[in-house]
Amino acid sequence: MTLRVGTRASALATTQSSQVAALLTELTGVETELVTVSTEGDRNTRPLAEIGGTGVFVSALRDALLAGEVDVAVHSLKDLPTAAADGILLAAVPTRVDPRDAVIARDGLTLGELPAGSRVGTGSPRRTAQLNALGLGIEVVGLRGNVDTRISKVRDGELDAVVLAAAGLRRLGRIEEATELLDPLQVLPAPGQGALACECRSDDREVAGLLARLDDGATRAAVTAERSLLASLEAGCSAPVGAWAEVVDDDGSLQLWLRAFAGDPSGAPSIRLSATGSVQDPTGIGERLAAEMIAEGADSLMRADAP
Ligand SMILES: NCc1[nH]cc(CCC(=O)O)c1CC(=O)O
Asked: Which residues are recorded with the post-translational modification S-(dipyrrolylmethanemethyl)cysteine (predicted)?
């Protein structure tokens, strides 16, 4: 049997899909082949919010899965809508690489070293809100495109810096180009950032069993809490929400720490809170923290600029 692993066409997507395919072969001995599927998010470089936001990168791969054209779909977990999809099983969440955001700035600078008025590119409302909340006098400039396109804006001198996911840079072998890795407690990553999602058809027991070997329990618990918070806030992947959870060993009992940020890209005061609980209950921790954030006003904050 040869497993057909579906991937988007971008350099990042094919790299991470081949890494999953290689891991699958290593752990289970099964043969794999990559099948490229083109998605609306790749074909269209208008702002994500305009072309459907949540899920534009994901649905074409899921369609190929349901149509039986591929057996496995590999996504960046942070691109995955929180709502479950009919007939689709999230069969594996491999070990998270790196949750952090990275800065690539001109002349090796860090964010703090950039002079006031510097132009920093990101297309993410979450990054925009947190960059503004740092109060550094930076001008945040909208940006889309693949990793290469974004970095080239700094190399061309069009921007002073860009902020992007460290995991993407690592997977592409370009992490050395980062001039700063932002502390994930200071600039909270997107829920699921740095983790991958491996899906199969819900009724495909055989592939589900193979993929289960790739699942990492601690990563699965952390991203489940992060995504539960996002779902309970009724926010999508393009909302100004950051969340990061870690499993910590508290005298032999495994605890999950979840920290969250909700903001407003235009700079209204933001909300930061954290919660902890048993690693057995990631969904409950996310729900409780979301309720606390809503009680503090997260709801109206996130929707302040909604169209
Ligand atoms: N927003 C798009 C996206 N989706 C996943 C990644 C790569 C990193 C990851 O796996 O979280 C990126 C690029 C980025 O945010 O810089």
From this structure: 237
pTM as predicted: 0.92
Instruction: Residue 306: name the closest of 270, 269, 265 by CA.
Output: 265
The interface predicted TM-score of the complex, written ipTM, equals 0.93
* Domain extent for 165: 101-181
Helix (H, G, I), strand (E, B) or coil at 48: helix
Point out the catalytic residue in the list 63, 71, 79, 281. Answer: 79
Are 62 and 206 members of one domain?
yes
- Is the distance from the beta carbon of residue 167 to the nearest atom of ligand 1 less than 6 Å? yes
Query: Which of 8, 10, 12 is the pocket-test mutation for ligand 1 (most atoms within 8 Å of CB)?
Result: 12
| 87 shares its domain with 199 | yes
Task: Indicate whether 187 belongs to any domain.
Answer: no
| Cα separation, 132 vs 143, whole angstroms | 16
pLDDT tier at 53, thresholds 50, 70, 90: low
Strand segments (E) across the chain: 2-7, 31-36, 72-76, 88-92, 101-105, 119-121, 139-141, 161-165, 180-181, 196-201, 241-250, 253-262, 271-278
Residues facing 209 on adjacent strands: none
Does residue 204 sit within a domain? yes
Instruction: Look up 249 and say whether it is catalytic.
Output: no
